[in-house]
């Protein structure tokens, strides 16, 4: 894993609840633009146009997902006040993006997972576990998870995250397929199905379903 700062290991827990989240029901490709209202615009001036990255959506409070952001998306990302980005591709992060992170105080966590097509897909379970540790640590929130198009690698990580939140597989697969659409992979879904969250320890209680839904 490549990152700007080293962290300590953490983990998660498993269960059997079947639940869904309104935040996890996006269109297949979100291509909306958002205009920033301002005093200048109210007085007749123009507002800034904010464009989210491909496949952008909210996963949970403080966690977002998307495809690879480019310079057209930077203004939108600034509105999220991100602390961290989880990058799931092996290629070096572009210098333009690195400069954006530096100027906004955003920490980069890189877990290089090759984007092979079936039948040569090999998802490294150890990297998914490390990425889950980062994603569930609220000290890293608000956080953006992304790969190239926000479908397969990002979908697998979010799917495993859902298992720590005790989602049933039907809901996990439904969310994955909303983003992957016609390019959904059986191998990805099998990986999520077999991924064992019971071995993950010490999931931060501020993120755990036991604290958020049993009060």
Care to describe what's here?
This protein is an alpha/beta fold and 215 residues long. Helix content is 32%, strand content 12%. The protein contains eight helices and eight strands, in the order E-E-H-E-E-E-H-E-H-E-H-E-H-H-H-H. The strands form two sheets. A six-stranded mixed sheet has the order 1-7-6-8-5-4, covered by helices on one side. Helix 5 runs parallel beside helix 7. The termini are far apart.
Estimated helix fraction:
25-40%
Task: Label the structural class.
Answer: alpha/beta
- Give the spatial strand order of the biggest sheet: 1-7-6-8-5-4
Instruction: Figure out the total of helices.
Output: 8
Determine the strand fraction and express it as a percent band: 5-15%
Work out the number of β strands: 8
Q: From the alpha-carbon coordinates, what is the Rg to the nearest angstrom?
A: 17 Å
SSE pattern? EEHEEEHEHEHEHHHH
**So what's the overall shape?**
globular
Instruction: Describe the sheet with the most strands.
Output: 6 strands, mixed
Distance between the termini: 36 Å
Low-confidence stretches: 5-17, 19-45, 209-215
- Mean of residue pLDDT? 79
What is the topological layout?
Elements: E1 2-3, E2 34-35, H1 39-42, E3 49-50, E4 57-60, E5 63-66, H2 74-78, E6 84-87, H3 95-104, E7 107-110, H4 125-135, E8 143-146, H5 152-164, H6 169-180, H7 186-194, H8 209-212
Parallel strand pairs: 5-8, 6-7, 6-8
Antiparallel strand pairs: 1-7, 2-3, 4-5
Helix pairs in contact: 4-5, 5-6, 5-7
List keywords for this structure.
single chain, 215 residues, alpha/beta, 6-stranded mixed sheet, two-stranded antiparallel ribbon, 8 helices, 12% strand, globular, disordered C terminus
């Amino acid at each position: 894993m490549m990152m700007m700062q080293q962290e300590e290991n953490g983990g998660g827990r498993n269960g059997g609840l079947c639940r869904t989240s309104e935040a996890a029901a996006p269109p297949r490709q979100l291509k909306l633009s958002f205009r920033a209202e301002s005093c200048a615009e109210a007085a007749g001036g123009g507002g800034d146009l904010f464009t989210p990255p491909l496949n952008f959506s909210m996963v949970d409070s403080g966690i977002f997902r998307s495809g690879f952001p480019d310079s057209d998306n930077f203004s939108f990302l600034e509105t999220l006040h991100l602390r961290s980005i989880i990058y799931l591709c092996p290629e070096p992060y572009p210098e333009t993006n690195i400069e954006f992170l530096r100027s906004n105080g955003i920490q980069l966590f890189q877990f290089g997972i090759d984007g092979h097509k079936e039948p040569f897909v090999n998802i490294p379970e150890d990297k998914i576990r490390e990425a889950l540790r980062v994603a569930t640590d609220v000290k890293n929130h608000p956080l953006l998870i992304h790969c190239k198009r926000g479908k397969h690698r990002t979908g697998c990580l979010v799917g495993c995250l859902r298992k720590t939140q005790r989602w049933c597989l039907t809901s996990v697969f439904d969310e994955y397929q909303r983003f992957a659409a016609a390019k959904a992979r059986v191998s990805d879904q099998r990986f999520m199905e077999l991924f064992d969250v019971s071995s993950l320890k010490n999931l931060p209680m501020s993120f755990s379903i036991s604290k958020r839904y049993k009060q």
